C-alpha cells in the first residue's frame, strides 16, 4: 500500500505529525492540517505514472537493457550486419505484452478500490444527514452507522441506540476474531442521539498521530471546558462491522490511508522470482562471455588484417576510415557483439511469459482445486510467480478461517461417568462418523436448531427418561453463560455469543430440550422440555484468565439457590467436594480421550447453597465491589470461597472444526520439508489447541517452549534458555549480555543435525521485544531449530515483520496464507501471497497472488502445480541456453576461417526464424506440458518437492553444464561438416566448395539435432508435443526449399541469394550421411550419460518414474494420510477464548434494551451493578493470557 506522502505530488511534504487535533463539525478548521481524505489506494499505477514506472520495473531485467544497447549498435551501419528491426520488433513486443498484463492486473485493483471508495455513508452536513461516498468523508465529520454496516473510518464513538452508549462490533477483518466485542461512548456524549444535539457538538480531540497499533489509542476530548480521557474502548476502527446495535454516531479521527487498518496493510511490492534474479546474473555472465569472444575475434581480425589483409588491397581497397588494422579490429568487435547476441535472444523472455501464462491457466482450470460449496475456483492472480511455488520453504499461516472454519461444534460429553457422542455397531465396535451416519432426531423439540447435528441417540434417550444428572448437565449449559438471545419470530432464536464456544454449548442445551429463551438483568428464562421456567439471576462470578472459569448463582422457582460453574479441569478439580473424587478420576480419563482427539474440553460442576450463607456472602461481595484498593483481589477471593465444595457433573468436548483436510495437508507439506508457522491474533491457549488438532503440536515432542515474557530481559532469557536446551550447551550465558546474542550465529549445522522435535509458542507482547534488532537473530535461530512455530496475539504488522525477518536472513522462499484484512500485510510481504476466500471478506484475496476456497488446496498448489512449474521452467531454460549456444557459437568457429570478417555462417532468414519458428514450439510444449511424474505421485511422494527448495534443477552449475553442452555441439556441428568437405564429392564427381552448401548442411543438422535432443529430454509425450516436434521439422524444410527457390530469387534477388542451394545439396546422399553422422555424434554422448546416471545413481524422481512406468496399467492408488491421534493432558482451551467483563455487563442491565428491562428492578440490584462502568474503564476488554 502506498503511503499518503507518496501520493502527494507536491515537493513540500508535510512534516510527520506529533499529535492530531480534530474538531467536530469544523471542516475548515481541520483542513488547515492537510489530513488524508478517506480515499484508499491499493493500485500501483495511474494514467500518468503507468508508462514510466512500468518501464522502470521492466528495465530492472538486465536483458531488456541489454537488448536496447544492441538496438543502438545495430543502428550503426559500419558495424551492423543485421537489420535493426530484427531487435526492435521483438523487444517492443515483449515490453508491450508485459505492460498489458501489468495494466490488466492493476485495472482490477482500481476497480476494487472504486467499489470500496464509492460505498455510501450517512454524514452530518449542514444540519441534516446526507449520503456521501466513503471517499468524501473527512476528518472531523460526524457519521451515522447502522446495524451490519462496515465502519467507514477510525471514529470516536459518541452515542448509540443501546443504553449507556454501548455498541457491539465484530473485528474479523482486523484480528480474525468473529466473536463480538463491546465499545462504549463517554457518558457525557452518550445522550447526543438527536441530530440537533450532534450539530451543536463542537468538541476537540487531541490524540496520538496515525499509527498501526490496533489495540492502543490515547487521546483527550476537550468539550465544555472539561477534559475527558479517551482510550481504545471508545474507538470503532475501519474494517469493523457494527453488530446487534440499531445505530450509532461517531466522529472521524483517522481517514483513508491513515486509518489503523490501512497502516497495517503494508506497501504493494514488485515481486520477482529467484529464477528471474538468477537470469539477470546469467545475462551479465553471458554478456561478459560475449565481450570475451568479441575481443578474441577482434584481436584475430587485427592480426589477420596486418599479416594477410594487405595482400587483398589490390582488388579489395580499404574504406578510407578503415585504413588502420587496429580500427578494423575495433569495428569487428562490435560487429561480432551483434552477430553473437543470440546467445540470449529476446524470444527467451517472450517464451517465459507465455509459459507462466499457461501455468496460470492450468491452476485456474484445475477441477481438483474447485470448491463446489462456495462455487469458487482456484485463481492465479499473477502470472510471474508460478515456478516460485515449487521452491517454498516457509509457510506463514493465519489460523482463524484459514486452518479452521471458526465454527464450534458440540461433539462429545461425559455425564456422571458416562460418555456420549460415539456411535457403535451391533458388535459394540466404535464406528467412524461420516456424512452418511444417521443423525439424532430432535423432532420432539419444536425449538431445536435445525443445523445442529449429534449422532449418539443414547443422550436423547437419557434426557427423555428425565435422568437427573443429564438434565442438570444441560440446565447448567443453558444458565451459565453470557449469551444474548434474539427471537426474531416465534421460535426463531438467534444467539449472540461473545465467543463461538459459548454459542456451541448453549445451542447444544437448546437441542436437548433446555432452551435458553430470554434474559433480563435479574432473570433467565429457559424452556425446559416444553415448559417455561424462569430463574432469578443472583450473581455472575465472571471469567478471567487467572480464575479460568465462570459461575452463576441462580434461584429456581422452588426457591433453591444453586451455583453452576464451568471452566478448566485444572482449576475445577481443586474446588470439588471429596465426594466427587471417584467421578473425578473417571471424568479425567474421558477428558484425556477427548483431548487426544484434539477437542476443546471443559468441566462442569454445581453446588447447592444455603440461603443464609448466600446472604452473608452477598453482603461481603457488595462491600468488596465498592473498595478502591485491591478490589480485583478481594472479589477473586470471594468468588473462590463460594466455589469451594462443588459437585462434579461432567465435561463437554467441543470441536473447533478444522477445514477439511487441514491435518493431512500439514502432514504432507511437512514431509516436503516445508516449515509451517502459524501467526494468529487468537489467544495462546486457543492457538495451541488448534496446533494440537492440526498435529503441528504433539505430546511426543521433546519440548514445547512457551515464550511469554513482558520485558526485553525476560524474553531474552526465555529465548536463550530454549536455544541452549536444544543445542545442549551446559553453560548459561549472562542474561544481561545483549552483545552475545550472536554466539550461535551459524546454526545451519545444528538445524540439519537435530533429530529431536521441538515447538515454539510466543505471545504477541513477547514477540514485540523479540523482533528488536538485539534479539531478532536469536529468535530466528531458535524458531528454525523448532519443527513448529506458533505466534499468537500478533498484530497484522507483526505478522509482516516475522515474514520479513525470515526473508531478510534466510535464503528461502516464503509463502503467506490468510483470509482476512488482518493478513494483507503478511501476504504482501511474503514472496508469494495466498488468499483464502472465507468468511472474513475479500481483502486477503484482493491482495494475494493466488487464491482458492480452502487451505487443503495449498497442498496441490505447491506439490503439483508449483513443482511442475519449477520443473518445466528449469528444463525449458536449460534447453533454451543449450540450443542457442549451439546455434550461435558456430559463428565463433567460423570466424577463424573467414578472416574474422564478421560474416555469418547461416542465411540471414535462418538466423531470423531459428528461435521464432524452427525451435520455438517444441520447447514451449515441453515448458507447458512436460511431467517427470504424474500428479498422484507428486502428492504420494512429497520428498519430490525438495530439489526445488535446494534449487537443484537450474542454477549456475546447471547453466555451466548446458552451456558447455551447447559449445560442444557447436564445435562438432561446425568441424564435422568442415572435415567432410575435404573428402566429400558429389555424385557427378565435382567438389563441394561453396559456402552456401556448407551453411545449409550445418543449419539442417542443427535443426534436426535440437529437435531430437528435446524429444529425448521429454518425459511426458502429448499429441501437442508430437505435432510441434514433427511440425517444426516439416516447416523447416518447406520454408528452406521455398526461400531458396527460383521464384523468390527472381522477385527479390538481394533478399533471397541462396537460389537452388537446398535443392542441389540435399539431393546428395553423402550430405545426408554427414547430417546423420553429425546428429549421432552430438546426441549419443548425452544419451549415454543420462542412461548411466539414471541407472547407476538414480534420484528419487528416477525411482518414482520407474515405479510409475511399472504401474502404468494399474489404477493409481490415492495416498491416505490419516489423522494422527494424540493423547494429551492439555484441556480446557475453551476457558481461554472467553472474555472478562461480560458478567458484570449483564447483571448491570446496561446491555439490555430499555423495553426489555424489568421496571420492578430492586434497589439492591441497581446498587450492585452501579460500579460496572467504573470497573470496565479500568480494565481491557480483552485480557492477554499469561503463561
From TrEMBL:
GO terms for biological process: Golgi organization; phospholipid translocation. The keyword ATP-binding applies. Its main location: membrane. Mg(2+) binds at residues 398, 400, 819, 823. Its EC number is 7.6.2.1. The active site is at residue 398. One of its GO terms (molecular function) is flippase activity. It is found in: Endomembrane system; Membrane. The chain crosses the membrane at residues 59-76, 82-100, 282-304, 324-350, 876-897, 909-929, 959-985, 997-1016, 1028-1051, 1071-1096. One of its GO terms (cellular component) is plasma membrane. Residues 845-1099 form the P-type ATPase C-terminal domain. It holds the Pfam family PhoLip_ATPase_N. InterPro entries: ATPase_P-typ_cyto_dom_N, ATPase_P-typ_P_site, ATPase_P-typ_TM_dom_sf, ATPase_P-typ_transduc_dom_A_sf, HAD-like_sf, HAD_sf, P-type_ATPase_IV, P-type_ATPase_N. It is a multi-pass membrane protein. PANTHER family: PHOSPHOLIPID-TRANSPORTING ATPASE IM-RELATED (PTHR24092:SF80), PROBABLE PHOSPHOLIPID-TRANSPORTING ATPASE (PTHR24092). This is Phospholipid-transporting ATPase. It comes from Austrofundulus limnaeus (Annual killifish).
Amino acid at each position: 500500500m502506498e503511503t499518503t506522502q507518496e501520493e502527494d505530488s507536491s515537493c513540500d511534504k508535510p512534516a510527520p505529525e506529533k499529535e492530531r487535533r480534530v474538531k467536530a463539525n469544523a471542516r475548515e478548521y481541520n483542513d488547515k492540517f492537510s489530513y488524508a481524505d478517506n480515499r484508499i489506494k491499493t493500485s500501483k499505477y495511474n494514467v500518468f505514472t503507468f508508462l514510466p514506472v512500468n518501464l522502470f520495473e521492466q528495465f530492472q531485467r538486465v536483458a531488456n537493457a541489454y537488448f536496447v544497447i544492441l538496438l543502438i549498435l545495430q543502428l550503426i551501419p559500419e558495424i551492423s550486419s543485421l537489420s535493426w528491426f530484427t531487435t526492435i520488433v521483438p523487444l517492443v513486443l515483449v515490453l508491450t505484452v508485459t505492460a498489458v498484463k501489468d495494466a490488466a492486473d492493476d485495472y482490477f485493483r482500481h476497480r476494487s478500490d472504486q467499489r470500496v471508495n464509492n460505498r455510501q455513508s450517512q454524514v452530518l452536513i449542514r444540519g441534516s444527514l446526507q449520503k456521501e461516498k466513503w471517499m468524501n468523508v473527512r476528518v472531523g465529520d460526524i457519521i451515522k452507522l447502522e446495524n451490519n454496516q462496515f465502519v467507514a473510518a477510525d471514529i470516536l464513538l459518541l452515542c448509540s441506540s443501546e443504553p449507556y452508549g454501548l455498541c457491539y462490533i465484530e473485528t474479523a477483518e482486523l484480528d480474525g476474531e468473529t466473536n463480538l466485542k463491546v465499545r462504549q461512548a463517554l457518558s457525557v456524549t452518550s445522550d447526543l442521539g438527536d441530530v440537533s444535539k450532534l450539530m451543536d457538538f463542537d468538541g476537540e480531540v487531541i490524540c496520538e498521530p496515525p499509527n498501526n497499533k490496533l489495540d492502543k489509542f490515547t487521546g483527550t476530548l476537550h468539550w465544555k471546558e472539561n477534559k475527558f480521557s479517551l482510550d481504545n474502548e471508545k474507538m470503532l476502527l475501519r474494517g469493523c462491522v457494527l453488530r446487534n446495535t440499531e445505530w450509532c454516531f461517531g466522529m472521524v479521527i483517522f481517514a483513508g490511508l491513515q486509518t489503523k487498518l490501512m497502516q497495517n496493510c503494508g506497501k504493494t511490492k514488485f515481486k520477482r522470482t529467484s529464477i528471474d534474479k538468477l537470469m539477470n546474473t546469467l545475462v551479465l555472465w553471458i554478456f561478459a562471455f560475449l565481450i570475451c569472444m568479441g575481443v578474441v575475434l577482434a584481436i584475430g581480425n587485427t592480426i589477420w588484417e596486418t599479416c594477410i589483409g594487405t595482400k587483398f588491397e589490390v582488388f579489395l581497397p580499404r574504406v578510407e576510415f578503415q585504413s588502420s588494422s587496429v580500427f578494423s579490429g575495433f569495428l569487428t568487435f562490435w560487429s561480432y557483439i551483434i552477430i553473437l547476441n543470440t546467445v540470449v535472444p529476446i524470444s527467451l523472455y517472450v517464451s517465459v511469459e507465455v509459459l507462466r501464462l499457461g501455468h496460470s491457466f492450468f491452476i485456474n482450470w484445475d477441477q481438483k482445486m474447485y470448491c463446489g460449496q462456495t462455487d469458487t475456483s482456484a485463481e492465479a492472480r499473477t502470472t510471474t510467480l508460478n515456478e516460485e511455488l515449487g521452491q517454498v520453504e516457509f509457510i506463514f499461516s493465519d489460523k482463524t478461517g484459514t486452518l479452521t472454519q471458526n465454527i464450534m461444534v458440540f461433539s462429545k460429553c461425559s455425564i456422571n461417568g458416562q460418555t456420549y457422542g460415539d456411535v457403535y455397531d451391533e458388535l459394540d465396535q466404535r464406528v467412524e462418523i461420516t456424512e452418511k451416519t444417521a443423525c439424532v432426531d430432535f423432532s420432539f423439540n419444536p425449538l431445536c436448531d435445525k443445523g445442529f447435528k449429534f449422532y449418539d441417540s443414547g443422550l436423547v434417550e437419557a434426557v427423555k427418561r428425565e435422568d437427573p444428572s443429564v438434565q442438570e448437565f444441560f440446565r447448567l449449559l443453558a444458565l451459565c453463560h453470557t449469551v444474548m438471545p434474539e427471537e426474531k419470530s416465534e421460535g426463531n432464536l438467534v444467539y449472540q455469543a461473545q465467543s463461538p464456544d459459548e454459542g456451541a454449548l448453549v445451542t447444544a442445551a437448546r437441542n436437548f430440550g433446555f432452551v435458553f429463551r430470554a434474559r433480563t438483568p435479574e432473570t433467565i428464562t429457559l424452556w425446559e422440555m416444553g415448559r417455561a421456567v424462569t430463574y432469578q439471576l443472583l450473581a455472575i462470578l465472571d471469567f478471567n484468565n487467572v480464575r479460568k472459569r465462570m459461575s452463576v448463582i441462580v434461584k429456581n422457582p422452588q426457591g433453591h439457590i444453586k451455583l453452576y460453574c464451568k471452566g478448566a479441569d485444572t482449576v475445577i478439580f481443586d474446588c470439588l467436594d471429596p465426594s466427587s473424587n471417584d467421578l473425578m478420576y473417571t471424568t479425567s480419563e474421558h477428558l484425556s480421550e477427548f483431548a487426544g482427539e484434539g477437542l476443546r474440553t471443559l468441566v462442569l460442576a454445581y453446588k447447592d447453597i444455603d440461603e443464609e450463607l448466600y446472604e452473608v456472602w452477598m453482603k461481603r461481595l457488595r462491600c468488596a465491589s465498592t473498595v478502591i484498593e485491591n478490589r480485583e483481589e478481594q472479589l477473586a477471593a470471594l468468588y473462590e470461597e463460594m466455589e469451594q465444595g462443588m459437585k462434579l457433573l461432567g465435561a463437554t468436548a467441543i470441536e473447533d472444526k478444522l477445514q477439511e483436510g487441514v491435518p493431512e495437508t500439514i502432514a504432507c507439506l511437512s514431509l516436503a520439508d516445508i516449515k509451517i508457522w502459524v501467526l494468529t491474533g487468537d489467544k495462546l491457549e486457543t492457538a495451541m489447541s488448534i496446533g494440537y488438532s492440526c498435529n503441528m503440536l504433539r505430546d511426543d515432542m521433546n519440548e514445547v517452549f512457551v515464550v511469554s515474557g513482558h520485558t526485553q530481559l525476560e524474553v531474552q532469557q526465555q529465548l536463550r534458555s530454549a536455544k541452549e536446551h536444544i543445542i545442549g550447551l551446559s553453560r548459561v550465558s549472562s542474561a544481561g549480555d545483549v552483545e552475545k546474542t550472536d554466539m550461535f550465529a551459524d546454526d545451519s549445522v545444528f538445524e540439519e543435525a537435530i533429530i529431536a522435535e521441538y515447538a515454539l509458542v510466543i505471545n504477541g507482547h513477547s514477540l514485540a521485544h523479540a523482533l528488536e534488532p538485539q534479539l531478532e537473530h536469536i529468535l530466528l535461530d531458535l524458531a528454525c531449530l523448532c519443527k513448529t512455530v506458533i505466534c499468537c496475539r500478533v498484530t497484522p504488522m507483526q505478522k509482516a515483520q516475522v515474514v520479513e525477518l525470515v526473508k531478510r536472513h534466510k535464503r528461502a522462499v516464503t509463502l503467506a496464507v490468510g483470509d482476512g484484512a488482518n493478513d494483507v500485510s503478511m501476504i504482501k510481504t511474503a514472496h508469494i501471497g495466498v488468499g483464502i476466500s472465507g468468511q472474513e471478506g475479500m481483502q486477503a484475496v484482493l491482495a494475494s497472488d493466488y487464491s482458492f476456497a480452502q487451505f487443503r488446496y495449498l497442498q496441490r498448489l505447491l506439490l503439483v502445480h508449483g513443482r511442475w512449474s519449477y520443473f518445466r521452467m528449469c528444463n525449458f531454460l536449460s534447453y533454451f541456453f543449450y540450443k542457442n549456444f549451439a546455434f550461435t557459437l558456430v559463428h565463433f568457429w567460423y570466424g577463424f576461417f573467414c578472416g574474422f570478417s564478421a560474416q555469418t555462417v547461416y542465411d540471414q532468414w535462418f538466423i531470423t526464424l531459428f528461435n521464432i519458428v524452427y525451435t520455438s514450439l517444441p520447447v514451449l510444449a515441453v515448458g507447458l506440458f512436460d511431467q517427470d511424474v504424474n500428479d498422484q505421485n507428486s502428492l504420494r511422494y512429497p520428498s519430490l518437492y525438495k530439489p526445488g527448495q535446494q534449487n537443484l534443477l537450474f542454477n549456475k552449475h546447471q547453466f555451466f553444464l548446458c552451456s558447455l553442452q551447447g559449445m560442444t555441439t557447436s564445435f562438432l556441428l561446425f568441424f564435422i561438416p568442415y572435415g567432410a568437405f575435404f573428402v566429400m564429392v558429389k555424385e557427378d564427381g565435382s567438389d563441394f566448395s561453396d559456402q552456401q552448401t556448407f551453411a545449409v548442411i550445418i543449419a539442417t543438422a542443427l535443426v534436426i539435432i535440437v529437435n531430437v535432443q528435446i524429444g529425448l529430454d521429454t518425459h511426458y509425450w502429448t499429441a501437442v508435443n508430437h505435432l510441434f516436434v514433427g511440425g517444426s521439422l516439416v516447416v523447416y524444410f518447406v520454408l528452406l526449399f521455398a526461400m531458396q527457390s527460383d521464384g523468390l530469387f527472381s522477385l527479390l534477388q538481394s533478399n533471397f541469394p541462396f537460389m537452388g542451394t537446398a535443392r542441389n545439396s540435399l539431393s546428395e546422399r553423402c550430405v545426408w550421411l554427414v547430417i546423420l553422422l553429425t546428429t549421432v555424434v552430438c546426441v549419443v554422448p548425452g544419451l549415454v550419460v543420462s542412461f548411466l546416471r539414471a541407472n547407476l545413481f538414480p534420484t528419487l524422481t528416477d525411482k518414482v518414474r520407474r515405479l510409475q512406468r511399472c504401474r502404468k496399467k494399474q489404477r493409481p492408488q490415492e495416498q491416505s494420510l490419516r489423522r494422527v491421534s494424540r493423547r494429551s493432558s492439555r484441556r480446557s482451551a475453551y476457558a481461554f477464548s472467553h472474555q472478562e467483563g461480560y458478567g458484570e455487563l449483564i447483571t448491570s442491565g446496561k446491555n439490555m434494551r430499555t423495553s426489555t428491562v424489568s421496571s420492578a428492578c430492586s434497589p439492591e440490584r441497581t446498587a450492585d451493578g452501579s460500579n460496572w462502568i467504573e470497573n470496565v474503564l479500568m480494565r481491557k476488554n480483552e485480557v492477554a493470557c499469561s503463561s
